[in-house]
Structure prediction request, 86 residues.
Amino acid sequence: MLDKDLATPPGSPEDGAACIAAASPAGAWAGQAGKIAFWLAGWLASVGVWTFVTPQEGFFFHVSDEDIFYKYTGSAWSAPSGRGGV
Prediction:
């Protein structure tokens, strides 16, 4: 997971890149707050598309830009207290 608080998609994502959309996302992520966004480039990088997954309670991911694990509580993403999260 690259990031968990972007309001707009990254400019040049790698195929398979994943982020958690921020609370008030815009652009290609509008209406997808808190969902997991995956970039799928297909066989031509210029024909990529963002696809979204609604998180389920218990999902957890390492967020690279913060070096912390986050867990979905059923209503929000949370980093448990203590170093490194979950």
Notes: The first strand starts at residue 18 and ends at 20. Strands lie at 18-20, 36-40, 49-53, 60-63, 68-72, 77-78.
